Structure formats: C-alpha cells, structure tokens
C-alpha cells in the first residue's frame, strides 16, 4: 500500500487537516482513487488527523464492497458518487470546518454564490474575481443513499465543480489529485471565512 504515492499524499493532507482543526472529534473523511473501479477510503470513526496508510480501506466504487471486511466511512456513498460522476476526480476531502458549518446555515438558498474575490482563482478553471462561483448547499441527511441521490440529480441539471456544502455539516470537495483537492479545500475555506465575515459586517 505504501507504494501508492497518492495515498501517501493523502495521509499528509489528513495531518494538515487535523492540525488546522478542520476534522474535530472524528469528523471528516478522505479518499483517493486507485483506478476506474476502486478507491481508498478512511476507516469510519477514527481521528482523521492522525491516520496512517493502514487506516485506509479499499472500496469498490460501484458496489461498495470492502475486501478487508472493515468499515469504511459512513459517508462512503458520497465519495463513490463523486468518483462515478467525475472520472477525472482523483481525491475527495470531506471536512467539518466551523466556516463551512455556519455559512451553510446562514445561506438559506440552495446555492452559495461567491463573487468578487481574487481567491476564486484557487479553483480550477477560474480566472477572474468578476465571475460567479456557485457552490451548492444540500440539506443534510443521515440517509447517505438518499443524499447521494439528491446530489446526483442536481448534477444532471446544473454544473457541479470543486465541491458542495452539506447544511450544518461541512464541505466535501475534490480534485484531479490530492494536491488539487487540497488547494480547493484551502481556497474554499478561505472564501467561506471571507463571505461569513462580510455578511456579519454588512448585516443591517
Ligand atoms: C463526529 S461524527 C461525524 C460523522 O457522522 C460524519 O459526518 C463524518 O464526517 C465522519 O464519519 P466517518 O464514518 O468517521 O467517516
Ligand atoms: Zn461529515
């Protein structure tokens, strides 16, 4: 397993996420794609800031079968959905940051629209602060299959890029590899904090 460089990069990313305080109290889950059919997903219930390579379980993307017999993340269905929807996705990071949790509740509509921030250019393909970046906000659900179906339906009607918010829960984002998923996470988190502060300051 250690010869998988993306898995090593993911272990590093998890330590970074833990040090940032973005995966408190076992919250969060992370994965990398192995190939078209399989990914490596964090084991359920662990402290995601102190994972090693052995804490990642091979999961079949189509069937959710786990050869080890161990229990992957409770949110496995969201990771596998992303790998199914986006063949170019190579890594998925789900975090419970304070900014994502609060902003997703402050934003009452189904999409958070970011506009006017230079840091929008941290997201792949974005080249101007003058463009709108829409991040969908899905109502949270303990039924992950139902939640995945809602997200899949959204993706049939609207572009879905970079990541989505789960209301009162957190952010799930992805990239072509771990480095890009990390950049999207850091960029979005920065943008969420700016947006939250701006809304507080502009509140009548
Ligand atoms: C602190 S419990 C949070 C979980 O319910 C879930 O949202 C989460 O992110 C972690 O679940 P896990 O099964 O460990 O991947
Ligand atoms: Zn979660």
UniProtKB/TrEMBL annotation:
<dbReference type="GO" id="GO:0046570">
    <property type="term" value="F:methylthioribulose 1-phosphate dehydratase activity"/>
</dbReference>
<comment type="similarity">
    <text>Belongs to the aldolase class II family. MtnB subfamily.</text>
</comment>
<keyword id="KW-0028">Amino-acid biosynthesis</keyword>
<feature type="binding site">
    <location>
        <position position="94"/>
    </location>
    <ligand>
        <name>Zn(2+)</name>
    </ligand>
</feature>
<protein>
    <recommendedName>
        <fullName>Methylthioribulose-1-phosphate dehydratase</fullName>
        <ecNumber>4.2.1.109</ecNumber>
    </recommendedName>
</protein>
<dbReference type="InterPro" id="IPR036409">
    <property type="entry name" value="Aldolase_II/adducin_N_sf"/>
</dbReference>
<dbReference type="Pfam" id="PF00596">
    <property type="entry name" value="Aldolase_II"/>
</dbReference>
<feature type="binding site">
    <location>
        <position position="96"/>
    </location>
    <ligand>
        <name>Zn(2+)</name>
    </ligand>
</feature>
<keyword id="KW-0486">Methionine biosynthesis</keyword>
<keyword id="KW-0456">Lyase</keyword>
<dbReference type="GO" id="GO:0005737">
    <property type="term" value="C:cytoplasm"/>
</dbReference>
<comment type="function">
    <text>Catalyzes the dehydration of methylthioribulose-1-phosphate (MTRu-1-P) into 2,3-diketo-5-methylthiopentyl-1-phosphate (DK-MTP-1-P).</text>
</comment>
<dbReference type="InterPro" id="IPR001303">
    <property type="entry name" value="Aldolase_II/adducin_N"/>
</dbReference>
<dbReference type="GO" id="GO:0019509">
    <property type="term" value="P:L-methionine salvage from methylthioadenosine"/>
</dbReference>
<feature type="domain" description="Class II aldolase/adducin N-terminal">
    <location>
        <begin position="8"/>
        <end position="196"/>
    </location>
</feature>
<keyword id="KW-0479">Metal-binding</keyword>
<comment type="pathway">
    <text>Amino-acid biosynthesis; L-methionine biosynthesis via salvage pathway; L-methionine from S-methyl-5-thio-alpha-D-ribose 1-phosphate: step 2/6.</text>
</comment>
<dbReference type="GO" id="GO:0005996">
    <property type="term" value="P:monosaccharide metabolic process"/>
</dbReference>
<dbReference type="InterPro" id="IPR017714">
    <property type="entry name" value="MethylthioRu-1-P_deHdtase_MtnB"/>
</dbReference>
<dbReference type="GO" id="GO:0008270">
    <property type="term" value="F:zinc ion binding"/>
</dbReference>
<keyword id="KW-0862">Zinc</keyword>
